[in-house]
Amino acid sequence: MGYVMELRQLIGTYxxxxxxxxxxxxxxxxxxxxxxxxxxxxxxxxGGSLEPGESLAQVAKRELFEETGLIANSLTxxxxxxxxxxxxxxxxxxxxxxxxxxxxxNDYVGTLESDGEEVMELRFFDSKEIPSExxxxxxxxxxxxxxxxxxIV
Length: 153
What we know:
Distance between the termini: 38 Å
Structural class: alpha+beta
């Protein structure tokens, strides 16, 4: 059981500040990897919450592997995100204020494969084909990425 789940046993659904990391994984055709989440059915970025003793880069690499089967050879810090727009209430009621460290990865190995639990589908998207059904905590990160790439959001 993870750290956040242990906290939830003590505090229930009360809002917490949750630190974590995500990965903007870019393939050799300059497409962004998104995953359809099983908890809300929306598209988002591979990522998750920090466990005690982990670095944020370790979180990003661990979550990328767990959710997609891919191993990041290197990560580049993209940005750190927080604030009111990163408040999220999960479908099961847990409330969080996310602090997300986003990394870009275009150096990776492995075979793309959904974990079958948290992830329903994995797909690479061209910047002009990003779906509109994006998970709320990931939307500002993807928009910032597309803006910095010069792609109209």
